[in-house]
UniProtKB/TrEMBL annotation:
InterPro entries: B30.2/SPRY (IPR001870), B30.2/SPRY_sf (IPR043136), ConA-like_dom_sf (IPR013320), Gid1/RanBPM/SPLA_SPRY (IPR044736), SPRY_dom (IPR003877). SUPFAM superfamilies: Concanavalin A-like lectins/glucanases. Residues 1-23, 51-91 are annotated as: Disordered. It comes from Heterodera schachtii. The keyword RNA-binding does not apply. Residues 61-72 have a biased composition (Acidic residues). Residues 130-322 form the B30.2/SPRY domain. The keyword Transmembrane does not apply. This is B30.2/SPRY domain-containing protein. Keywords: Coiled coil. It comes from the Eukaryota. Pfam families: SPRY. SMART domains: SPRY. Residues 1-10 have a biased composition (Polar residues).
């Protein structure tokens, strides 16, 4: 191939500028590219001479040289490319095997993670169930403190306008001829203790008319009239929604008001000194109502005051309330 016939300069002039000083393989590449270019030109312009004419037919075997060149070039190209293809295929096979192995490992790891997550979720579920059971038991224990000795209204601390009726002494009826606050206290007091988890609570249901107030007072009053609301250490709720905290009127809230057919409650969360108000079994927002720190370890007395003749309430000192105690 390095001794190409160049006797006809005119016929080979298109190749002369790029063939000199090239190696055999480079010559082959140039010739192949040139032949392909000429073939494309012949396809577009049929009037142009064929590649055989461009190389010339001088009767000295130049035609054979062209075909020999093409065959030899094809063989060398095939010999040259085949090893490359084989190596590329081998590399591709190894890459695919590696990918397959990595995917397998990833699936195994994913399954292991899934199993571990499932176990953790199951353990968490069991733990939450145990916590729920413990909380329920604790709330049931706290419930026992709410009874405070099965309380009832005391006949010896009762305004003359009031009458206690019923077998359990839980119903109070205003039977006086004049209007005005008439009060009564429960028999047993409660003792706050900020070192305990006690919650003290009771409810009243309005049976007739609705002018009343109820709550806790630090001490029993000798004068059983409306002045109880103004005493320090008194925490109460009036039927018109007026709230009394430590002997002072704080605010009147419409949703706190109550009347005939309603059941309202008041409680004290001893360790945090929080006053709790409820209505018809639902807790009212009372996060800011606190027992003064000076009364944190004092005794508290449940009381109720009725205004008009005919007013009637019934107290519930526990253990079963309208309120679900587990919500406290």
């Amino acid at each position: 191939m390095s001794t190409l016939n160049t006797s006809s300069a005119d016929e080979f002039s298109p190749l002369q500028p790029i063939i000199p000083n090239l190696s055999t393989s480079e010559e082959m590449s140039v010739l192949i590219a040139r032949i392909a270019e000429l073939n494309r030109a012949n396809t577009v312009e049929p009037s142009i001479a064929s590649s055989a004419d461009l190389f010339g037919q001088d009767g000295n075997g130049s035609d054979d040289n062209e075909f020999n060149l093409d065959d030899e070039n094809g063989q060398k190209k095939e010999e040259k490319e085949t090893p490359k293809n084989e190596v590329s295929g081998d590399q591709l096979s190894k890459i695919l095997e590696k990918i397959s192995e990595m995917e397998k490992q990833q699936k195994e790891q994913s399954k292991a993670n899934s199993d571990q997550l499932s176990k953790m979720q199951n353990d968490q579920k069991i733990l939450l169930e145990k916590i729920s059971e413990l909380e329920k038991e604790q709330k049931q224990k706290r419930k026992a403190f709410l009874n405070f000795r099965q309380n009832y209204w005391a006949t010896n601390v009762c305004h003359e306008n009031l009458q206690i009726i019923g077998r359990k002494n839980h119903i109070v009826h205003h039977v006086g001829n004049t209007s005005g606050w008439s009060s009564i206290f429960a028999k047993h007091q409660i003792l706050l203790n900020n070192n305990s988890s006690d919650i003290f609570y009771y409810e009243i249901s309005v049976k007739d008319k609705e002018s009343c107030n109820f709550g806790f007072a630090v001490k029993q009053q000798n004068k059983l009239d409306g002045t109880i609301l103004y005493e320090k250490g008194t925490y109460a709720l009036e039927s018109d929604g007026q709230i009394w905290i430590n002997g002072k009127a704080k605010e009147r809230i419409a949703k706190y008001s109550y009347g005939v057919g309603d059941t309202v409650g008041i409680g004290v969360n001893s360790p945090i000194r929080q006053i709790i108000f409820t209505k018809n079994g639902l807790r009212l927002d009372s996060a800011d109502f606190l027992v003064a720190s000076s009364f944190a370890n004092d005794s508290f007395h449940p009381f109720v005051s009725l205004w008009n003749s005919g007013d009637k309430i019934e107290a519930n000192f526990g253990p079963n309330f309208k309120l679900d105690l587990t919500t406290l």
